[in-house]
Amino acid sequence: MNGSVKPEISHAENRIVNGVFVISTRLNDKVNAMTAAWVQRASFDPPLITIAVGITRYSHDMIRESGVFAVNVLGPDNIAAGKHFGLKTGKKTDKFAGIEYDAKVTGSPILKEAIAWMDCKVVSYHSAGDHTIFIGEVLDGGVLKEGAKPLVYDKDGFYK
């Protein structure tokens, strides 16, 4: 990226509404997770979703190598979890120390406090500038908190 994106473009793009998610993965005996906002449904049948992960993120290479990830959907009561998984790198810290989680088909962590989850295997990935778009087939999923609304990302207020 050359840093030449016009501020007006970034300002307009910030009006795109996104949820807040924790993307988790497992590579051998190592687990990690990161907070993300760029998650999207891609297909009904088969059930596919996309995630956009920055190429410098520790989870990026773990997902590429393992071929698996889980999407944990956060609700308004999960802001602390979003900050926890978004402020430090997994290269230097065990983000799951003291955090309870389940594991399903892929072994990627499913947060017990999430409102919903999807466990995925990577079916393809594509370079997208400073991110990689991973397309995952949802192998399993569930809702943990019926009626809970997803947390909407607010760039100006989330990390304050």
What's this entry about, in short?
The chain is α+β, with helices and mostly antiparallel strands. The chain is 16% helix and 40% strand. It has one domain (18-143): Electron Transport, Fmn-binding Protein, Chain A (Pnp Oxidase, Chain A).
**Uncertain residue ranges:** none
Instruction: Report strand %.
Output: 35-45%
H/E element string?
HEEEEHEHEEEE
Instruction: Please give the CATH class.
Output: Mainly Beta
Mind telling me which CATH architecture this is? Roll
Distance between the termini: 27 Å
Q: How many DSSP H or I helices?
A: 3
How many strands? 9
- Percentage of residues in helical conformation: 10-25%
CATH topology: Pnp Oxidase, Chain A
Q: Report on the biggest sheet.
A: 7 strands, antiparallel
Number of domains: 1
**Mean of residue pLDDT?**
93
Structural class: alpha+beta
